[in-house]
Structure formats: structure tokens, C-alpha cells
What does this fold into?
Amino acid sequence: MISLVLIYIGELVCLKNELHIEKIAESKKLVIMLMLFGTLFTAIIGRLFYVMYINDNFYKTKASYQSRSDIIISSKRGSILDRNSNELAVSMASYRVDIDMSTLRVSLRTNHMSMDTLTAKLSSILNMDSKKIKNILYMKSPQGNPIKYATLARQINKTQSNSIQGMKLQGLIISDDSRREHIYNNFLASILGYTNAKGNGVSGVEQSYNTELTGIPGRKVSQTDNKKNPLPYKDSKYVAPVDGKNLRLTIDLPIQKFVEDAAEKALKDNTAKSVTITVMNPKNGEILAMVSKSCTNSSGTSTSVKDSLKNNAVQNTFEPGSIFKVITAYAGMEEKVVDDNTIFTCNGSLNVGGTIIHCDDTAGHGTEHFGDIIKYSCNVGFMELGTKLLGEEKLYKYEKLFGFGEKTGIDLPGEATGEVKTPDKTTRVDLATNSFGQGLSVTSVEYLAAFNAVANGGTWIRPHVMNQIEHRDVNNKPVLDKKYDNLGKKTILDKNIAATLRGYLRNVVAPGQNGVGASADVPGLNIAGKTGTAQKNDSVTGGYGAGKYMSSFVGMAPYGDPRITMLVSIDEPNPNKYYAGQVAAPVAHDLFIKIFDYLQSGIDDPLK
It folds into this structure.
């Protein structure tokens, strides 16, 4: 009996121990669970504290950004006008398409439309390559993240805009834009230049005065719902765009038309590579007309788009040939090494340090006075003037005085720089050929700025095409903002010597004088000028190319008090007739007639 009791007591003890162990195990599990939940709760509370207090500005900004619409409103680009307010380039109303990528993706899902279907529709509406559209739709940031906003297309028309709106997709944002239109198509193209798809000027005055023409874009910011619909009763911000200012040029439309037609005719008549003509007012540096015409290929198109837009008067250099004798002549007169009684003898050539250099008249001009070597354009006479009477230092002094070897600073992009040799790099042969305009280079505007100083009595003035910048007031009346004032005026010549030189240049053209520029003469206009027929370098051989010439005529009228200066250059005319007196001077003759008829009688705009 006692043993049974002991056994029962033992069993009770074991059961108690087992229950205690189970309770301990359950307690441990509970503690672990509590610790896990505590840790998680602490993490959540910590994250909430971080979001709500530590980094609250970031999330407020992000939430605000996702619930607002921010649209840039393009400003209207200013117009470009000629000096008489004729419109040359204007901005026409058009539209742009921007994409809110997040909203667009939601809208596509809602409308059960795939990205490929959208791409095909947009490609058809915009006449845009589908691959280009896909590249925009799937564009990523430099960090590799999908972009939130992108511009799909600009300068689209009303029909295209309506077609896109008709798709009724949220995220395709249509807003006002403008496109550039040249009133007279390619007329004056190398001066006006062009704008790119973003509306920025990339050539011509569109580039030079891009800031003034562009204006300041506006902005519209509004609160939106999750579908980007504007929310009522919410504050919105609107900043109106400021339209660009208008640019009034020095270009005179009728004169430009005369010059364009003359250049086109000269190009065809002489089967030339190109024709460049510039007309200026020598008293203030204003360019009244400027044309660069290049030859066409058999299909009737320009040899290249780049060539058709290139402004040769500004961006090309050439060896001036005998028109440079104006500079050498002035140097001799200013240095007092020549006068009316100075005698030169031309036997058709001159031996310069063992090199025989020929005159244009290989038979020789014989005995000549100083005025004769200008009138007959005698190379031998000018070589003697340069090598025997002036020398390297003095000739270089006047080359620099007239501004050669430096940019004029004209307000057109891409100006090239002519080249003249310093005295230490000038050989005896260089000096001889430089004296009559070979072995150095100039641009048309560089040369004409120098020639203008002779025409206006001694003042160098910077060539320019901007007359003034203006805007329209509330009554649509022009208001002046700025006149061109970067003239860089400086007196470089003696006015009396310049007047005497103009007299010599008048004899080059005047009837009965047998001068080389007689074919440019117009009765009653008293034109003075100089021809130049320069050999051209062959880029392959390094020497002068056979049958390749630059034929030029520079002139002023009337020579006593010039109102107009003009430079006509014909690049590579037909080698059977290439002398400047035959090809360039007659072009100037016709232009002088038309220009002075217009100035004196005030004819109507020839383009209308």
C-alpha cells in the first residue's frame, strides 16, 4: 500500500514538471513573438517619424509635383523687317505636343491601347518616323530611370493638333507654339538664316540676334487630379510669355531684289562657280544688299545645302587681285613717294630677284604717270611702287591701317579672317605680288569696309545689317529699343588724299579715258572704281590653277560724294572670257542704273 502511494506521488511530481516545462516553452515563444512584433512596431513608428518629421519636405514636394500640371508657354519670336518695314521673316501660329509619361501610361491602360498602337497613330498624324517616336516614349534619364516629361513635336499645324486631341488620351499635352516663315522663301536666306526645331536661330541674323528675337517663355501651373484634369477652386499660377522683339535690318528690299536678280544672271551668263555682290552706304556702314549665289548641278539644285546657306561675302576669303591696288596707291600717296609727275616704265614684265612677273599686257604699257598705272591697272607699275618706293614695312603698315588681316566684327556669324604677311615673312617676290593684290587674302566685307574709307573721306566704319531693335506697343506702333551703335568709327585716311584718289578711280571708269573699268560707266552718275582679275590657288598643286580666276569690280557713285559703294565678285567665270572688265564691271553698270533710278524715283517694291 505504501509503495502504491509513493508511486502515485512520483507520477504527480513528473506531471507537474512536464506542465512546468510546457509553460516555460510557451512563455519563451510568447516572448519571442512579442519581441518580433515590438521590433516591427518600432520600425514602423521610426519610418513614420522619418517620413512625417525628418524628410517631410521631400515627400510634400513630390506629392505636390505629382498632383500639378506645369506647362511652358512659348513666346512669339520677333519679326525681321527690312529698313522700310517690309516683313522678311515672321512667326506663324502653330502647336506643340508634350508628354506627361506617367499620366499617358495610365490613360493607355484605361483605353486598352498599346504603346505600339499609339506610336503608329502618332507617326501617321505627325508624319514622323515611328522609331523616333518610340525613342522619345521610352527615353530614359542619364541615371537610367524612365523620364517623366518629354517634348514629342513642335511647330505642328491645327489639323495635326486636332487629330491628336481627338485620340482623347490624357498625358498628350497640346499647347501654343510658333513656326518661322520666310515671306519670300529663299530670298535673302544667307542673311536671315534659319531656326531649328526648338525655335532657336542657327544661322544668319536669326543666330546673331537670337536673344532679342526669342523673348521670354511663360508658364502655367495648376493643381490636378490623378488623371491630370485641373481641379476647380484650386490656386493656379500663370506667367504670361514676353514676345520677342522685332529686328529691323539695314537691307533695302528693292535693292536686294535687284542684286539677287543680277547675281543669278551673272552666274548663268558666265557659267561661274559663284557670284557675290554687296552694296553699302559708305557713310554709315549699312549693308543695303548682300547676295551669295552658288552654281547648281545638272538636276538644278544647289551643289550642297551648306553652300546654299553660306554667306560668301562674310565667310569666304579670296585673293583680291587688282582691286587691292587702291590700297597700294593710297600708301604711295600718303608716304609722298608718288605724285602726278612720277614716271613708271612698263615693258610687259619685271624681274624681281630672278623671278619674272608679267603684266597683264605682256607687250607693256610703255611710259606711264602715276594716274596711268591705276587707270590701266599696270602690274609692273605697282610692283615698282611696292618694291622700290614703299618696301615691306610701309606696305604692311597700310594693310593694317585699312584693317586687313582682322575681322571687321560684322553682326553676322561665321566671319572669316583675311591674311596678310608680316614684313619678316615677306620675300621680295611676295612684296611685288602683294602690291597688285596677289599672295594675300580678304573677305568681301573686309575689303569693302576699307574701300568705304576712301569713299567717305577717311573713316573706317564697321559693316552691319542691324538697323534697330524695336517692339510694338498696345496700339501696334513700333517703339525703338536700340539703334545699332557698334560702329567702331576711326579716322584712318587723310580726306584730301582720299579725294584725289577718288579722282584717279573715276578715270578708271570715265568715258574717253580708256580705263579698264569703262564698261561700268553710267552717264550722269560719275562712277569711280577698280577692276581686279586674280588668279586662284589650286588646292592640289599649291600653285595658281590654270583657267581659274576671281573677277571683281569695286565702285562708288557719285565719286565726289558717294552714296553707294558696291563690290561684285565672280568666282571662276568661263575661262574664255574672264577679265573683270568683261564680266564683273557690266554687272555693276546695270546695278548702278537700277539702284539710282530707285533712289531717285522711289519705285514700288519689286517683289509685290
Notes: The two ends are 140 Å apart (CA to CA). Residues 2-54 form the longest helix (53 residues). The first strand starts at residue 68 and ends at 73.
